[in-house]
Here is the input.
Amino acid sequence: MIIQKNNNIIPNFLNEQFFKTVIANKIGSKVFELTGLDYSMGCNPGDNHLSYVYRVQATYRKKGLGTQVGHFIVKCVPLEGDREEFAEMDIFQKEKLMYCDIIPRIESCLDDIKTAPKCYYVTTEPIATMVFEDMKPTGYAIADRVNGVDIDHCKAFLKKLGQYHAGSMILLEKDPSLRESENLKHGIFSSVSFSKQTLAIPTYMNLSRLIEYASKWSGYEKSVDKLKDFLKNKNFLEKVLDGIRISPGDIVAICHEDCWVNNILFQYKDNVVTDAVLIDFQGCTRGSIALDIVYFFAVDVELSVLRKDRNQLIEDYYYPALREALEKGSYKDIPTLEDVKNEVKKKAMFGLFGVIMVLPLISMKRKEGADDTMEAMKDRKKLEKFADLACSSERVHESLKIFLKDCESSGLLD
Here is the structure.
């Protein structure tokens, strides 16, 4: 048995016995010999705020098949200390439900379409832990979060998002009980999380700094006055919540709700983007399909795409994928393209929230954001310094201009 930790600090419980269980689940047999474990870190500092992620390559021998290699991602979710307040959001139980029950059922509603990695093992001892297939060996990787993704990445993702939404809509129609599921009642952005200082403080801190910049922009005076009122009355997050809640006429799916770059894996073949899948389903909720669309545009795409390609991407990639999958699934009352576009306009406030709270955080260069951890977010001085730097970028400012215009034109700032 060869174990290589490669100078990484690996929890003791991620041992030989642990991976024997994982492999047994993967291959459906306990008759094999585990011969090696090779560990590496699965993400960099600042890349994942709620979890510790490890990449593990396991070699094993099975009679008649010779030496086999299993590639795994291990995600540990400690819900104590600085992360304790996330426990009441049930993020681990929700993700377990999604990977072990709902996603397989969504994919069964689709025509041989993969929407997420397979989950091989879930345990709560000694801490909440999930093990997934590592899709890196098949060409999947995370894209550029600093500059945002180009139009080819957008095409691949929005096509897959349309298929995922369609599968979940078909599932909700087949199983109406999911419409009442407490586990899907709210997502990672909700009245629960918005009441936490960990999210509220940086949101209003960023809002304050961005108001200072926006006050110097010609043509944004009315929007800035309304942002100042949100800051003064501390009701910006309440306004965002109004947009997140399901309203009459919404096209409802099981939304991911946190489609930022690090929660998407893109597949590359000869440097061409060929596919995309979603990961990190801890924030899923029943909600408008537009939440995922506007959030993706707000926090993931490069400025050139954001400025001129949004409608075309919805028309040519998201909607055709949604409609085709719904038709194949014999879904009743398929929404029109105009229905989808109107809903995207109606939910623009969630995009504005993404620009103000999330984009500054994730678009910083890796070195600048290296201290972007849950622990650092508890330190007021570090947080203020971080907000000053995060809110100063051109990408954030130009994205803010676009979403302020979107919200103003739809009357969402009133």
